[in-house]
Structures are given as C-alpha cells and as structure tokens.
C-alpha cells in the first residue's frame, strides 16, 4: 500500500513535536517492528511481513512448540540469522540520544521488538516486553541465557539440566514478563510525552499503553509510515520513515549529534 506523505503536514507535525519535547518533564517511548524496518528486518504484518503465509499458531505459541519444537526453532534460527547482518539505523540512534538527554528516571524506552537493536545503538535501559531473540530459556529449569546471535544447534539443550531450550520471547497465549510490564505501565502513566514508533498497535496488552498514556494526560506522538490502529488517540502524527523523522526531530530540539 502506498500512502503519499504530505511534506507540509510532516513539517507542521515536527514543529509541534519539537515544542512538546522541549517542554516535556518525562518521556516514554513504545517501539514496534517498524523502527527496525530500515535495518532490513521484516515487520510482521503486510506484504513481505513475517506473518505472511505463516500461521501464527504454527510458530509462535506454546502449543506449537510442544507439538513440533524443530519447526518452531527453524523459524527462530532464521530470525536470529537475519539479526547477525542487521545494524541499528538512525531511528534507533535518535532514541538513544533522547535517553541520554533526559536521563534514566525521566525517560523510558519500551519495545515490543525482540531484536536487541536499541541496545546495540546505545540505549541503556530498554523494557523488552516481548522478550529477546538473543536469549534462551530452559523449558525444564527455567535458566535464562544470553546467546548473542551466533548459530545454535537445531534443537538446543540446557548445559545445566539437559532440558530443551526455547527462545526467551513471549508467544501468543503467554503472559508478558510481570516486572518489565509493570515498569512499562508505570512509566506510561507518569510521562508527559508518549512517543509511539513503528507499531501497527493491534497486539494487546502492548497497544493498550497508548490509551493508558492518553488517559493519563500525555501528549501522544506517533511516528509511522501511516496512521496505526491507534491513530485516533494521537495528538501529533509524523508520517514518514522513522529512520528519517526521528533524527530530524532530535536534531531540531538539541542540534546535530
Ligand atoms: P507490525 O508488523 O504489526 O507493524 C509494523 C508497523 O511499522 C506498521 O504500522 C508499519 O506501518 C510501520 N512501519 C513500517 N516501516 C516503517 C518505517 N520505516 N518507519 C516507521 N514505521 C514503519 O509490527 P508490531 O506492531 O511491532 O508480537 O507488531 C506487534 C507484535 O505483533 C510483535 O511484537 C509481535 C507480533 O506478533 C509477538 O510476537 C508477541
């Protein structure tokens, strides 16, 4: 789908967003797969998306893993391989800069992404509400391991107890990691500006944070190619590639990096 971007509208949006950020006391950001699109990683929905031609139930549920762990691991091995070649893009770096400007208690980055690119770009505190492809978790003893992006055996097993390992990501029908989610909700309720980047805003409870922010009185800014499902909750829409829009925004507020 092609949406023309009205450059006049984008300019006006950037001016309004600059004003909001200048006056902001606390900022929370929610990112989705769109911020990593310009790093060459596929998003989930739409043409060429990861879920195209793939039933979610076949690869991203606990039932699928019990039925056919090798099939599920094949999907995750491919995604981990894609990560090996991926580098952060200017959108990730702009958000890292935003964190450095506001400092830890005043800034929170919440991500639905499991690619770890925010951390590679220098973001220090990242709330990964859907887990990470760079970690495994033992299905028997529960031990979580940092695995980076190096290839893993077809069916990896736990060096401690011999149990089958799984990716440390959240699957459909699974709860979000409790403590991380509680921090995300609390930061969302406290922020004066809530910036939503590159998410279709259809997967809950993550998408519900946008409404939470709005109800708590935050200015909601959306950076996306097109308005998301939460478009009606947005005060300022910045419709264009996040890898271009976010660096411009941050540069206009604090000067060139
Ligand atoms: P989606 O694939 O649903 O949405 C990606 C969004 O990014 C869309 O709204 C695009 O318009 C936008 N987009 C694409 N390229 C962009 C660019 N260069 N700049 C700005 N925006 C761009 O991905 P998510 O919303 O992240 O969950 O998906 C949410 C969750 O659904 C994922 O975390 C995953 C998935 O199932 C789990 O696996 C639990």
Structure overview:
The protein is α/β, with parallel strands linked by helices. Helices cover 37% and strands 17% of the residues. The protein is built from 9 helices and 9 strands. The protein has helices spanning 7-23, 56-59, 62-67, 69-85, 90-102, 117-120, 178-190, 208-215, 242-254, and strands spanning 27-31, 107-111, 126-128, 131-138, 144-146, 165-169, 193-197, 219-224, 236-239. The strands form 2 sheets. Strands 3-2-1-7-8-9 form a 6-stranded parallel beta sheet, sandwiched between helices. The protein has a 3-stranded antiparallel beta sheet with strand order 5-4-6, covered by helices on one side. The two termini are 33 Å apart. 2'-O-acetyl adenosine-5-diphosphoribose binds next to strand 8 and helix 9.
N to C succession of SSEs: HEHHHHEHEEEEHEHEEH
- Count of discrete alpha- or pi-helical segments spanning 4 or more residues: 9
Please give the share of residues in helix. Answer: 25-40%
The CATH class label of the largest domain is Alpha Beta
List descriptors.
elongated, 9 helices, 257 residues, SIR2/SIRT2 'Small Domain', 6-stranded parallel β-sheet, alpha/beta, Rossmann fold
Question: How is this structure best summarized?
Answer:
This protein is 37% helix and 17% strand. With 257 residues, the chain is an alpha/beta fold.
């Amino acid at each position: 789908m092609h949406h023309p971007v009205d450059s006049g509208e984008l300019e006006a949006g950037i001016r309004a967003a600059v004003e909001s950020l200048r006056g902001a006391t606390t900022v929370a950001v929610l990112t989705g797969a769109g911020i990593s699109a310009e790093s060459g990683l596929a998003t989930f929905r739409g043409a060429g998306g990861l879920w195209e031609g793939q039933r979610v139930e076949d690869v991203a549920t606990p039932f699928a893993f019990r039925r056919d762990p090798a099939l599920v691991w094949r999907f995750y091995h491919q995604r981990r391989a894609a990560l090996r070649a991926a580098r952060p893009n200017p959108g990730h770096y702009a958000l890292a800069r935003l964190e450095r400007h506001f400092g830890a208690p005043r800034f929170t980055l919440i991500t639905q992404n499991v690619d770890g690119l925010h951390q590679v770009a220098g973001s220090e505190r990242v709330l990964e509400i859907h887990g990470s492809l760079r970690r495994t978790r033992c299905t028997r003893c529960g031990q979580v391991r940092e695995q980076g992006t190096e290839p893993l055996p077809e069916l990896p097993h736990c060096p401690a107890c011999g149990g089958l390992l799984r990716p440390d990501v959240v699957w459909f029908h699974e709860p979000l990691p409790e403590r991380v989610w509680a921090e995300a909700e609390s930061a969302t309720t406290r922020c004066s500006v809530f910036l939503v980047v590159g998410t279709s805003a259809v997967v809950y409870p993550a998408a519900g944070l946008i409404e939470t922010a709005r109800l708590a009185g935050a200015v909601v800014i959306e950076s996306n190619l097109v308005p998301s499902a939460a478009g009606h909750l947005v005060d300022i829409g910045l419709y264009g590639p996040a890898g271009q829009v976010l660096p411009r925004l941050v540069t206009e507020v604090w000067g060139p990096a």
